[in-house]
TrEMBL record:
Subunit structure: The OGDHC complex comprises multiple copies of three catalytic enzyme components, the 2-oxoglutarate dehydrogenase (OGDH/E1), the dihydrolipoamide dehydrogenase (DLST/E2) and the dihydrolipoamide dehydrogenase (DLD/E3). OGDHL/E1-like isoenzyme may replace OGDH in the OGDHC complex in the brain. The presence of either ODGH/E1 or ODGHL/E1-like isoenzyme in the complex may depend on its tissular distribution.
Cofactor(s), names only, from the UniProt record: thiamine diphosphate; Mg(2+)
Lineage: Eukaryota, Metazoa, Chordata, Craniata, Vertebrata
Subcellular location: Mitochondrion matrix
Family label: Belongs to the alpha-ketoglutarate dehydrogenase family.
GO cellular component, one term: mitochondrial matrix
SUPFAM superfamilies per record: Thiamin diphosphate-binding fold (THDP-binding)
Pfam families: 2-oxogl_dehyd_N, E1_dh, OxoGdeHyase_C, Transket_pyr
Function: 2-oxoglutarate dehydrogenase (E1-like) component of the 2-oxoglutarate dehydrogenase multienzyme complex (OGDHC) which mediates the decarboxylation of alpha-ketoglutarate in the tricarboxylic acid cycle. The OGDHC complex catalyzes the overall conversion of 2-oxoglutarate to succinyl-CoA and CO(2) while reducing NAD(+) to NADH. The OGDHC complex is mainly active in the mitochondrion. Involved in the inhibition of cell proliferation and in apoptosis.
Protein name: 2-oxoglutarate dehydrogenase-like, mitochondrial
GO biological process: glycolytic process; tricarboxylic acid cycle
Catalytic reactions of this protein: N(6)-[(R)-lipoyl]-L-lysyl-[protein] + 2-oxoglutarate + H(+) = N(6)-[(R)-S(8)-succinyldihydrolipoyl]-L-lysyl-[protein] + CO2
Protein origin, superkingdom: Eukaryota
EC number, as in UniProt: 1.2.4.2
Length: 953
């Protein structure tokens, strides 16, 4: 008799990593009948083989571990029966139980009926402690090789693996009451008949319907029901367009007439935002969950066609909702993300989002991911669309269990979804439900899929819909009658028809019905709209002084800081005493003053705690104690709002999307994302284009997110110079040819009408004011700030407390205040500029002694364009040539934006000449000498008072 040890030797090092340590334990395969132990293939008996060889063959003879690890490879997952979910038709020999296989191990058919002692690591026996080998194999195959395929043995946590085994191996766990089955059938009826109704009424419209995966509706409702039962009060969903209308109708429970009205071709564009299609819009709804009889809030976040782009946005919004509710463990607020199989595998933002899942300042304490696995992406076969066996393999990087399930087995789907919701609540970790289904129609309803997948779609055309399959099953077992089934269909059809009638009678739709994050009470005061005014952004001097003192101290005892940091803190103290601020201290005072007023501030990005240029130092690190930190900003006042500053993962796309979602949750917060260098926003361009620039136009989605983009030509090369201001200005919606009417509230109303605000501040005080204005405005707009690099420590880039105290405010334009302004009639040239180049111009003007002949005016707010102030400045210098000077190349930067606006405001009577670098392909040179030569060249041109004489515009 021999007790054999269990070890995954056959799979080598990979399997050794996959199996948890608790799998390497004693497994008693002793037969109750007498007889010698089995002979190993090598011919050696168990007692005489070497220890390692014995373990090796023990692994071969252990069906439990083989099924747990690899059973999903042979599970019957494809409803069509033609594809392998893992793209591989090979069946591991370990999983084949044949006479030849038995003979290989010196076993005979009769041995299958011998009983064996069950190990403690399995739950297949239930209350039984011994089973025949035949029954052991049958139960393992039933658990791991049928309509559910489980991937979880890569998780290196004993408790978690045992939890999953218990949920799936225990006999009888997938038993449903008659009432549960009837509810499931009713949900399938609603899901399928909704799609049928749309197909009948709007056969030539794109709907991106759910046909082929109708089970997704009861799947999502099960996750929500189970989560509500466990205390969840708020569920935030993100999904692509396939099935979105069905989710809105049957999960969120949006009024059907509101959906049907969106199909009306006569619906005015004003009622649809910019006319964004109905299967991209979001929704917010508070209702009673009828299963748990508890209140629940459901929010479906609007998203573009960029599929997975919504993932980090949902996570950020979820994190914010948890933060404002004090839900640190995610027991009240959760997220559900729905994915397509090709997008889940193909889009990198999925990976970026997964890697935020366990980071302290980004975790949402687990997300349920539901993959609608169409087994095709657009027209691309999955074998051409991914290199991994499954589309879900990306989830393995965070040890998320993956539950594959045949979507034509509704009960299996519902059970898996229930377990997924329990997993998320129990372990606060991500989990993936892979609904292996098919797409009954093409990529959309107008598509012909037979062009590219003829064999698949021949089978699909023969495929019996899941509703009929399940209804026939319940009718056969007597759970429902045919009459009850037909009555359920007729009832929902009547609901749809009545809603269709109402949608034609009432043209009451407005985009507000599609908001995913309403801000009740923000836009109104006592029921009346807020006035279009903005209070002064200055603050009392004693508040500035107090913040400066805290910023220059370490408010924790026995805390050892770096000696270099001590010098920085002393410098802050000195500035506070002399009533001056640099860039970093101005930011500190803006944040601190908002915290005093109860405004939560969150700053996120790479290196933001210290600052890429080592200027910020908002988090102090004890030099003697590992991971002991101090955030002085959180020690300003006893009852202040919290300050969150967090270094992000090395991600722009995912993190910017996350912060955008965070800013959606509440208007009473300042949420900022800082790029390590301004041009790094390139890899987050999708979020900028699809959500930030167009959010209000497409979805009436106000958002106050702030982008801090370090920018400036410093001779550092093309990769670390330009934040590409031309791109942001090109997407600004103010009209260059429209001459504005200068009303009393022009400044604020202009901000209200724009899609975002673009600034390039040249003083710390103006940076301070624009941050505070962002929160004090009666509405929210994204704010793009081109922040400096060399100006962080430039001796001239300092501001006085006098420019920040009560009564002061942001200056859209900073006019000339030197000698030239004293006698404007004598000024021969007026140079307009923005940002850092101002200091280069001032230095050059001084060196040439032209202070009285050349005036320099700074444009601080570039978009929306300050027409009124520019007009005033130009009129102040009637005899001066007008010049626009920028350090960026002519085809970049600001010139193409400001030039037509100057012509509009000056009625084309006076030209504005360009001075700057010549057009180029790259934003900057990497050669220091070339940089200095080009700088000297355009500065010489700027102050050559004969440069434009005789030239025509």
């Amino acid at each position: 008799m021999s007790q054999l040890r269990l070890l995954p030797s056959r799979l080598g090092a990979q399997a050794s990593r996959l199996l948890a340590p608790h799998d390497i334990q004693m497994f008693n395969w002793r037969s109750r009948s007498s007889g010698p132990p089995a002979t190993f293939p090598s011919g050696k008996r168990g007692g005489s083989s070497s220890y390692m060889e014995e373990m090796y063959f023990a692994w071969l003879e252990n069906p439990q571990s083989v099924h747990k690890i690899r059973g999903h490879h042979v599970a019957q997952l494809d409803p069509l029966g033609i594809l392998d979910a893992d793209l591989d038709s090979f069946v591991p020999s370990d999983l084949i139980t044949t006479i030849d296989k038995l003979a290989f191990y010196d076993l005979r058919e009769a041995d299958l009926d011998k009983e064996f002692q069950l190990p403690t690591t399995t739950f297949i026996g239930g209350s039984e402690h011994t089973l025949s080998l035949r029954e052991i194999i049958r139960r393992l195959e039933s658990t791991y090789c049928q309509h559910i395929g489980l991937e979880f043995m890569f998780i290196n946590d004993v408790e978690q693996c045992q939890w999953i085994r218990r949920k799936f191996e225990t006999p009888g766990v997938m038993q449903f009451s008659s009432e549960e089955k009837r509810t499931l059938l009713a949900r399938l009826v609603r899901s399928m008949r909704f799609e049928d109704f749309l197909a009948r009424k709007w056969s030539s419209e794109k709907r991106f319907g759910l046909e082929g995966c109708e089970v997704m509706i009861p799947a999502l409702k099960t996750i929500i029901d189970k989560s509500s039962e466990m205390g969840i009060e708020n569920v935030i969903l993100g999904m692509p367009h396939r099935g979105r209308l069905n989710v809105l109708a049957n999960v969120i429970r949006k009024d059907l007439e509101q959906i049907f009205c969106q199909f009306d071709p006569k619906l005015e564009a004003a009622d649809e935002g910019s006319g964004d299609v109905k299967y991209h819009l979001g929704m917010y709804h508070e209702r009673i969950n009828r299963v748990t009889n508890r209140n629940i809030t459901l929010s479906l976040v609007a998203n573009p066609s960029h599929l997975e782009a919504v993932d980090p946005v949902v996570q950020g919004k979820t994190k914010a909702e948890q933060f404002y509710r004090g839900d640190a463990q995610g027991k009240k607020v959760m997220s559900i993300l729905v994915h397509g199989d090709a997008a889940f595998a193909g889009q990198g933002v999925v990976y970026e989002t997964f890697h935020l899942s366990d980071l302290p300042s980004y975790t949402t304490n687990g997300t349920v991911h539901v993959v609608v696995n169409n087994q095709i992406g657009f027209t691309t076969d999955p074998r051409m669309a991914r290199s991994s066996p499954y589309p879900t393999d990306v989830a393995r990087v965070v040890n998320a269990p993956i539950f594959h399930v045949n979507a034509d087995d509704p009960e299996a789907v519902i059970y898996v979804c229930s377990v997924a919701a329990e997993w998320r609540n129990t372990f606060n970790k991500d989990v993936v439900v892979d609904l292996v289904c098919y797409r009954r129609r093409g990529h959309n309803e107008m598509d012909e899929p037979m062009f590219t997948q003829p064999l698949m779609y021949k089978q699909i055309h023969r495929q019996v819909p899941v509703l009929k399959k399940y209804a026939d099953k319940l009718i056969a077992e007597g759970t429902v009658t045919l009459q009850e089934f037909e009555e359920e269909i007729a009832k929902y059809d009547r609901i749809c028809e009545e809603a269709y009638g109402r949608s034609k009678d009432k043209k009451i739709l407005h985009i507000k019905h599609w908001l995913d994050s309403p801000w009740p009470g923000f836009f109104n005061v006592d029921g009346e709209p807020k006035s279009m005014t903005c209070t002064a952004t200055g603050i009392p001097e004693d508040v500035l002084t107090h913040i400066g003192e805290v910023a220059s101290s370490v408010p924790v005892e026995d805390f050892q800081i770096h000696t270099g940091l001590s010098r920085i803190l002393r410098g802050r103290a000195d500035m506070t005493k002399t009533r001056t601020v640099d860039w970093a201290l101005a930011e500190y005072m803006a944040f601190g003053s908002l915290l005093k007023e109860g405004i939560h501030v969150r700053l996120s990005g790479q290196d933001v705690e210290r600052g890429t240029f080592s200027h910020r130092h908002h988090v102090l690190h004890d030099q003697e104690v590992d991971r002991r930190t101090c955030v002085p900003m959180n020690h300003l006042w006893p009852d202040q709002a919290p300050y969150t500053v967090c270094n992000s993962s090395l991600s722009e796309y995912g993190v910017l999307g996350f912060e955008l979602g965070y800013a959606m949750a509440s208007p009473n917060a300042l949420v900022l994302w800082e790029a390590q260098f301004g041009d790094f926003h390139n890899t987050a361009q999708c979020i900028i284009d699809q959500f930030i620039s167009t959010g209000q136009a497409k979805w009436v989605r106000h958002n106050g997110i702030v982008l801090l983009l370090p920018h400036g030509m410093e001779g550092m090369g093309p990769e670390h110079s330009s934040a590409r201001p031309e791109r942001f200005l090109q997407m600004s919606n103010d009209d260059s040819d429209a001459y504005p009417v200068f009303t009393e509230d022009f400044e604020v109303s202009q901000l209200y009408d724009c899609n975002w605000i673009v600034v390039n501040c040249s003083t710390p005080a103006n940076y301070f004011h624009v941050l505070r204005r962002q929160v004090l405005l009666p509405f929210r707009k994204p704010l793009i700030i081109f922040t400096p690099k060399s100006l962080l420590r430039h001796p001239e880039a300092k501001s006085s407390f006098d420019q920040m105290v009560s009564g002061t405010s942001f200056q859209r334009v900073i006019p000339e205040d030197g000698a030239a302004a004293q006698d404007s009639e004598r000024v021969r040239r007026l140079i307009f500029c923005t940002g850092k180049v101002y200091y280069d111009l001032v230095k050059e003007r001084s060196s040439q002694g032209l202070e009285e002949q050349v005036a320099i005016t700074r444009l601080e707010q570039i978009s929306p364009f300050p027409f009124d102030l520019i007009k005033r400045e130009a009129e102040k210098y009637p005899g001066a040539e007008l010049v626009w000077c920028q350090e960026e190349h002519k085809n970049m930067g600001y010139y193409d934006y400001i030039s037509p606006r100057f012509m509009t405001i000056l009625s084309r009577a006076r030209p504005i000449w360009y001075v700057g670098r010549d057009p180029a392909a790259a934003p900057a040179t990497g050669n220091r000498n070339t940089h200095l030569v080009s700088l000297k060249k355009f500065l010489d041109t700027a102050f050559n008072l004969q440069a434009f004489e005789g030239k025509t515009f």
